User: Fold this.
Amino acid sequence: MTKIKVGILFGGRSAEHEISLQSAKNVIEALDKAKYDATLIGIDKEGKWHSFQDSAFLLNETNPKLIKLNQSSQTEVAVALGTSERPLVPVSSKKPHSMMQEPMGVDVIFPVLHGTFGEDGTVQGLLKLAGIPFVGADVLGSAVGMDKDVMKRLLRDAGLPIADFLTFRRFERSEISYDKVKERLGEPFFIKPANLGSSVGISKVSDKSTFEKGIETAFFYDNKIVIEENITGREIEVGVLGNEHPIASIPGEVIPHHDFYSYEAKYIDADGAGLKIPAEISDAVAAELKMMAVKVFKTLECEGLGRVDFFLVDGKKILVNEINTIPGFTKISMYPRLWQASGIPYAELIDRLLQLAIEKHERDSRLRSSV
Ligand SMILES: Nc1ncnc2c1ncn2[C@@H]1O[C@H](COP(=O)(O)OP(=O)(O)O)[C@@H](O)[C@H]1O
Ligand SMILES: [Mg+2]
Assistant:
């Protein structure tokens, strides 16, 4: 059997660069070597792509804060557009003994990238132009899943329950008044950049004095912000897997040990949050969450995988918070653990995702591109 060449894409120009490196390391280790050959492609913080030798692609790999790409074992590559047998092309390197001299073939890519330039449709667009099958949502699903304003409007249109929210663009800044926001949404409320993740740029505002700072912070990161009513509830997450007929995992709960599930709680504080799998909820609520997770996934044009995050108020009222189209993928991350607990172990999950990517690509390749 010829092995399938899998490109693992990791790093990236995002606040989640380091978590992506950890996810990639776990994915590479778990890949079925009898079936797949891995090609490692790391994107540095400037956005350049490099191929790596798998033995030494990371430095400080056991330290989540200091983990980084090992630049001494890298060769810069570019992606050739149009369908090509060997789409990964080395960029002429000054090194005399560049590891990779020839263009490389790749049958499918797993973008283990989170956030900006990874989860937002940009990389997906590039891979489509290069004709390479890839894991996860297409351009539209990725972009929609990333934009909290557009995402919420689509969820609302589908009749899915969400927190009340307001959207403002930078040019409307002078119209954003604390009193008007408070009148509509109550207090406290959340101010967020529309397109970001990892809780970066998010503030919980409970009085006028922190309002301006919250608005300013969100506009550091995006030209569009959303302001949401505060939901007092538990945070429950459900994994979704599949293309046309997606299935949902059992629900799990995130229990933040901070005021909310902030950047610190997610990545800085080792004890910032606890994961409880399965979530302690009634069977009826679990069934409702699973059904809604699949509906969210379909409504937002997602494929492959997604983690749908909910708020559960008073043990019964469900509100959709958001979708993550490339959720954290280390062995101890919520998404793989939800599937593990639902009967799909880590290595099998990766296998299924790669198969789904290939199926999606074959389906789409049959479409006519000219009259
Ligand atoms: N409307 C809200 N009510 C209560 N908590 C919220 C609300 N919005 C966000 N949070 C808190 O902030 C965290 C991050 O917000 P989220 O919208 O999920 O952004 P991100 O995409 O950065 O994860 C949530 O996990 C939750 O703890
Ligand atoms: Mg979130």
